């Protein structure tokens, strides 16, 4: 009566907290997902979760199946990974470059998890802040680039990892706390704290300030997220950061945050690779691992 797809669906429901987001994560329409759950409940002759609750509240039967999913799905994934290694070989090279200062929070656990299962794949990591990583990827110097700024380039393939909201963080007593959302002109009087990256590679400029013809009063840079937060909390400026990077500080009420624009500024993080490597078994498994780690550990992200 119970199939692996049912367990994957229930796990996605728990992790996503809603039917809409769960459907996106497992690449089904919402109606198809609802039909699958209804079919399972009819087979089992019991309800698995309480409707119209957010986050979803599972019944005892639903929780029992979730416990089964937590036991069984990692075993299935491990078996699939072993078969991929046997079929496609275990060796390879994965030189990764990252264009995101705050991405180390999820990339390090991803690499650690991946290394356990692909010990023969040669791993290396660098940052793309002092050179242009996409030409290096095309030349073969790199194998994977994590970027939020995809450029159409012959021979390069982009895979979306997840979407996130870029929010403006500020001190809790800042004047902009009184606003429901931030308009570009609100930053004309502010010191904007950014990572030390060119403005044309920062979404707060290319997608928010530049289209409105607005510039901040001053710009200050910092390499470390924790230092950015210290400066913001001290009233030395404001900063646009991914919602998941600011989550811990917001939970501790260390800072405040507001959306950029009425609808928020949503961005997507991509993995770029060469076309000839996109189907390599270890590359496919690394991307799957990255998605699993990010959706398990990052708050506020969406399926891309």
Automatic annotation (TrEMBL):
Cell compartments where the protein resides: Cytoplasm
Gene3D superfamilies to which the protein is assigned, alphabetical: Periplasmic binding protein-like II, Winged helix-like DNA-binding domain superfamily/Winged helix DNA-binding domain
InterPro entries: LysR_HTH_N, LysR_subst-bd, MetR_PBP2, WH-like_DNA-bd_sf, WH_DNA-bd_sf
One Pfam family here: LysR_substrate
Record has DNA-binding as a keyword: yes
Keyword field: Activator, Amino-acid biosynthesis, Cytoplasm, DNA-binding, Methionine biosynthesis, Repressor, Transcription, Transcription regulation
GO MF terms held by the record: DNA-binding transcription factor activity; transcription cis-regulatory region binding
Domain HTH lysR-type, first and last residues per copy: 2-59
GO biological process assignments: methionine biosynthetic process
GO cellular component annotations of the record: cytoplasm
Superkingdom of source: Bacteria
PANTHER family in the record: HTH-TYPE TRANSCRIPTIONAL REGULATOR, HTH-TYPE TRANSCRIPTIONAL REGULATOR METR
The family this protein is said to belong to: Belongs to the LysR transcriptional regulatory family.
Name by which UniProt lists this protein: HTH-type transcriptional regulator MetR
Protein's organism: Marinobacterium marinum
């Amino acid at each position: 009566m119970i199939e692996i797809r049912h367990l994957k669906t229930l796990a996605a429901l728990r992790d996503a907290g809603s039917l809409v987001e769960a459907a996106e994560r497992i690449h089904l329409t919402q109606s198809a997902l609802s039909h699958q759950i209804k079919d399972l409940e009819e087979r089992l002759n019991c309800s698995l979760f309480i409707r119209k609750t957010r986050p979803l509240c599972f019944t005892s039967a639903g929780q029992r199946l979730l416990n089964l999913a937590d036991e069984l799905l990692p075993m299935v994934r491990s078996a699939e990974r072993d078969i991929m290694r046997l079929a496609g070989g275990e060796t390879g090279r994965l030189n990764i470059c990252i264009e995101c200062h705050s991405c180390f929070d999820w990339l390090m656990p991803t690499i650690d998890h991946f290394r356990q299962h692909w010990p023969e794949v040669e791993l290396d990591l660098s940052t793309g802040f002092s050179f242009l990583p996409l030409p290096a990827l095309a030349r073969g110097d790199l194998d994977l680039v994590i970027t939020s700024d995809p450029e159409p380039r012959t021979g390069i393939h982009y895979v979306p990892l997840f979407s996130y909201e870029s929010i403006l963080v500020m001190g809790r007593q800042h004047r902009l706390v009184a606003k429901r959302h931030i308009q570009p002109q609100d930053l004309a009087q502010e010191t904007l704290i950014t990572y030390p990256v060119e403005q044309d590679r920062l979404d707060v400029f290319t997608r928010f300030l530049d289209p409105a013809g607005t510039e901040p009063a001053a710009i200050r840079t910092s390499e470390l997220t924790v230092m950015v937060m210290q400066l913001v909390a001290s009233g030395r400026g404001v900063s646009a950061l991914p919602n998941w990077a600011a989550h811990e500080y917001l939970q501790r009420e260390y800072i405040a945050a507001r959306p950029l624009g009425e609808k928020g500024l949503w961005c997507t993080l991509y993995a770029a690779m060469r076309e000839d490597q996109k189907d390599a078994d270890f590359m496919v498994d690394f991307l799957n691992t990255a998605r699993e780690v990010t959706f398990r550990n990052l708050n506020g992200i969406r399926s891309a």
